[in-house]
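Sample intake sheet
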Amino acid sequence: MVTRVLVPSGVLGLGFDSQALARGIAKGPDIICIDGGSTDSGPFSLGTGTSKYSRAATKSEWRQLMQARAEAGIPLVIGSCGTCGTDSTVDWMLEITRELAEELGQDLKIATIYSSQPLERLTSALGAGEITALEPAPEISEASLKSCVNVVALAGAEQIGAALATGADIVLAGRTTDTATVSALPLMRGDHPGAVWHGAKIAECGALCSTNPISGVILVDFDDEGFTVEPMAEDARCTPHSVSAHMLYENSDPFILYEPGGHLDVTEARYTALDERRVRVSGSKWVSSNTYTVKLEGARIGGYQTTILAVLRDAHYVANAQAWVDKLKTFVSREISKSMGLGDGDFDLEFRLIGVNAALGSIETKTGTPTEVGVLGIITAGDQQTASEIGKLINPFVLHYPLTSDEELPTFAFPYSPAQSERGALYEFSLNHVLQLKAPMDGFTLTTQDITHAQGW
């Protein structure tokens, strides 16, 4: 059986080509699948349980997809709702969906998959030896689990399949693997498992596997031997190179991809251009595991931050920016210790030179003297009050501290007032582990609800 999957974009909120979406719908897909998030932007979204993406942009794009779903009469699935896939962001996405159902006059059956992990489940699993560390993994204990503000498990195809089996029009899933939404229906319909997992990996970022990655929309046909991928934008093409290269994307091994319940092996995969736009792939293998595990992602508060920003433009200070911040850091660290009674372990102070080495630090290889240099001070402490007080203490020195004792006090530029900003809690990832489940749904909660727009809220 051929299963046709339409992927509008690599993530909801990033945008896609509306005309390409229409072309995809005209080709009669069996399902529309899109991702809602990732860990790419760090632990803040997971720590706070909020979306990285604009609600307005999310709602605007989701409106188009709900309209396309209604036109085609097929399921619409989103994984990792609200970037991080916590229960709160699933409910955030559900609220948007309910609003749009009312505005569009749609009657819907909605399935929700919740991925957040309660502490009791995790501590019980830890005691039973059912949580295993991945490399590299932080030290884990019951105390470290209690320090987590949010923990999610990454759902796979089985959980999405269970939601689709309810007959839902729309599936809103918590944290999932990138491939889960695309692979679920083809696996349920008996398509080649190796081809399904491989094609899902290729399609998970939409048109990133094509020559026009920002166009978004991709169409994948799965069958009992392989898969065929085609971009929907008129000016996009898939080539054997563009398709095969995507196995390198966010993957430590270009031939092996681990998923709940097993792993994909593309060592013997063959990529063939059917024409200028389409690529056919065959030879991929799925290797089942004896145990079913799901990856855990956790975030905890690692401190509180205040930042301060100044701009150096005086040529003397620009040319000697690193020497200046080194001397400044030594001086203000002594002042903090003297005035606030804080030791080295009570706070962290870092200066980054924007325009010099802010991204790469000591491994920067490019040389040359810029016209101006931004000096970003990052203060981290155990509470916001302390971090803010340090920011105020170092403020006059960031503005006026001289490079040498025999020169006049300089004056640098603050781009805004006050120069320091309170960033609040600093979150850090705290888990790199897998959780063993006796059955795929044991770590997840599946609910359904019928929404009739005439009933209102």
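Comment: The chain has two domains: 3-298+431-455, 314-412. The longest helix spans residues 321-340.
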